[in-house]
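agent> Task received from the user: take the single chain below, predict its 3D structure, and emit structure tokens. No templates, no multimer pairing.
agent> Plan: (1) validate residues, (2) run structure prediction, (3) serialize to tokens, (4) report one or two observations.
agent> Step 1 OK, no nonstandard residues flagged.
tool_call: predict_structure(input=
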Amino acid sequence: MKSSAFDRLRRPPLGFVAVLVACGLSATTASAQSVPSSLPDALAQEVMDLNLLGSLSTQNGIGTLNYDLNPGCAVAGATCFAATTLSGPGGGPAVTVDINQASFSGAGGGSVNFAEIYYYVTYNGTGPVTIHMSDTLNASGLAQAQAYFGFGVANTGFVGPLSYSLSYAGSDGSLLAPPIYSLTNCAGPCLQGAGFNVGPLSNINNVSMTSGTPYLVDIWVDVQPANGPASATLDPYFTAPNGTFSFSAGVVNGVVNAVPEPSTWAMLILGFAGIGFMAQRRKSMSALMTA
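)
tool_result: status=success, residues=291
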């Protein structure tokens, strides 16, 4: 039995229903995307010393500095490392220092255990931008752990790859002109407290970024155990409702699916309801034809 022209006109085409569903799904994941860029490379450093500068170990470049079995981390089963990565588990570049057991040769601690990354970002769009923060600090007893996020327009005097002398003092403010956001979070007394805004590292919403302008991000963690475990991790990333981000080579910028708006939910429900209705209607028609 062939369907009449009237039946075909009153039957909503599946293609139209599919478009409704596709639009709804795409609306739930809309966000600025990362695109290739020619921005300067990221710069990283890792520093480990659990023996009052008696056995300092340093490394420049992205990677992990393993300090196991060195003075201060020579206890069986101890794990001590400083690590930097351009694609952390939280979605963006990450810095980590983890010391699960330490014994000092001197009294009072005073060690340097540090990881830091500088990297560039530009945004081409109308915003606003959200910077998502994810930091974890653990410090037992008298141990201390600290995480820092700095963000600002890149100093116009810097052209090409970033370069600076290895330092244990934290961020080099000369790379930013000046920081738009500068915030640190601490477990225990802050190791580097002078001149820093101290507070929880939560999401920074409605950030205004000038389209096409290079910005510099500075993230670091600093840990000082006191004959006990201590660790710190920081892993931020950027999102925006439109446009594109560009980062230093190798930087992975995680995107979390947006929560659907009420109108999006309505479109999704309408689309799936339409598909269900059509399937049921065709089933009923088939039953009538074979009756």
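agent> Step 4: summary for the user.
Residues 33-247 form one domain.
agent> Done.
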